[in-house]
Amino acid sequence: MPKAFVLINAEIGYESEVLKSLKKIENVKEAYMVYGIYDIIVRVERGC
Questions:
Q1: Domains along the sequence of the chain with CATH
Q2: How far is 2 from 47, CA to CA, in rounded Å?
């Protein structure tokens, strides 16, 4: 089962909205807001 980690920069003030939308996507297994260069980290898996 292929997996990937995606690092995302969101527009200032939209981080929570982006995170909420990402969690609704079927292949998104985990999504978290983080501090540092990126705003969100997402783990995605493709079912085979």
A1: 3-45 (3.30.70.920)
A2: 8
